[in-house]
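Late entry, flavin-adenine dinucleotide complex.
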Amino acid sequence: METTQLTADVLVIGFGKGGKTAAHALGDAGQRVVLVERSENMYGGTCPNVGCVPTKMLVHYSTGRRLEDDAQEFFARSIEGVRTLTSAFRAGNFASLDGKDTVTVITGTARFADPHTVTVGEGDDRITVTAPTIILSTGSAPVVPPIPGLATSKHLVSSTELTQAATLPERLVVVGGGYLGLEFASIYQHFGTHVTVLEGAQRLLPREDEDIAEAAREILEGDGIRIITGAKITKVEDSGAVAKVVYEKDGETHEVEAGALLPATGRRPVTDGLRLDAAGVRTTPAGAVEVDEHLRTNQPHIFAVGDVNGGPQFTYVALDDARIVLDQLLGEGKRTTADRVAVPHTLFTTPPLATVGLTEREARAQGRNIRVGKKRVADIVAMPRAYTVEETRGMMKFVVDADTDLVLGAALLSIDAQEVVNTVALAIRHDVTATELRNAIYTHPSSTEAFNEVIPVR
Ligand SMILES: Cc1cc2nc3c(=O)[nH]c(=O)nc-3n(C[C@H](O)[C@H](O)[C@H](O)COP(=O)(O)OP(=O)(O)OC[C@H]3O[C@@H](n4cnc5c(N)ncnc54)[C@H](O)[C@@H]3O)c2cc1C
Ligand SMILES: NC(=O)c1ccc[n+]([C@@H]2O[C@H](COP(=O)([O-])OP(=O)(O)OC[C@H]3O[C@@H](n4cnc5c(N)ncnc54)[C@H](O)[C@@H]3O)[C@@H](O)[C@H]2O)c1
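Prediction complete; structure with ligand written out below:
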């Protein structure tokens, strides 16, 4: 039996945002890089194949459906559009990396043999790769909560299936009202599915201020989504063409039926199959690869970037993780996870909810003297943009430190919020005062103009 043996300067495991960003930069710097990706359907990782990109394209398609469109046909066409885009992105991701003279992409599952070596594949196809530096970027996978009957239900669907299957379910039950759950709920409801969200917590979006969470809930319910908070699901039973989901709320037992059942209760780091024990790499009790602020594991030559290191699960955080590791390998080695200030987030409902910094509740809990500016989008005179695109739902809210006039946080539930929030984040990071942000000149008509009116005056 012949085994192909490769050596590299850097071995990257996983073709996600973190891994590929590092591989590109290291390859461009002249280092010999081998990147191992276990699936030919995942070049580029979760985001462009089964995550951010397909879901945001589905948000776009679903909100363009007209009443006269046949729901099933329109949905199938939309899925076709998603497939076309994701396969183009996948091919582009592969070609741009594997096309470099310094980089080799291997398709197969990597397993550690020792702290510097992994094996890929079995038998005659077996390859070993040895490198002095290794970057783990193996991402995360959905958690299926231990609800009796859920894991074995034939109606169980994954987020991946919901971005790829061409049949629109008549009824969808989403278990969990977090980012993933609410995005799919909003997408599928717009396509014409009857959606129910069962959320275990007593209220939706518990991290947000109550007024914002309530405004978001109003919009989702206004679109027809049934939202049940404080729901304790006790079992799932398949019954012919549907699954019966049994849950308790306020001491009473209820039931809801669905043709499709999506668990959206979080994602866990993917380390299974990697044989981290053979590398001597430690994991946390939650199963993430343990790292320090430079993203080094307990084995100093092995780094972990992206979802697998247990940090916030966002593509742009995986990207920033890669910057930190690159700074160690090619730069001054100063950059750390502690450098991150005012990292924004967007929940892509329609309209989206984008947030950054402190909520009003958090600012008050810190004992700060604050000013709050808040308006319903429909009432913001300085933002005709909302009227020009016929999306006047939502609310904008700013929290400002009354002593320093610095912006502490914002919650923007409004058209374009995923863009506008980045300007607020930049202001927070660079100590632009609320007065400066309020009194700046913005294009017209735009959503940023709302700052002229909603940011509270000193
Ligand atoms: C439905 C959905 C929507 C999302 N929407 C957004 C969004 O709008 N914005 C946002 O910022 N984030 C979003 N996210 C989160 C985002 O996709 C992730 O945070 C991001 O992709 C993490 O990148 P990563 O590099 O850590 O891993 P990934 O992109 O998951 O890549 C890991 C890769 O490693 C491979 N792999 C695993 N084990 C092995 C092994 N042993 N050997 C070889 N290869 C292996 C996997 O096949 C995979 O391709 C979304 C996630 C989902 C699921
Ligand atoms: N737009 C984006 O940036 C985006 C979109 C999708 C996913 N993501 C990333 O993917 C991660 C995973 O998303 P997610 O929504 O699965 O996780 P999440 O942690 O954001 O939300 C999980 C939700 O499920 C609820 N829950 C947990 N167990 C439950 C149970 N048994 N019954 C009912 N409810 C239950 C929780 O209270 C919580 O509200 C997100 O945290 C985010 O980082 C990001």
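The mean pLDDT is 97. Will revisit in the morning.
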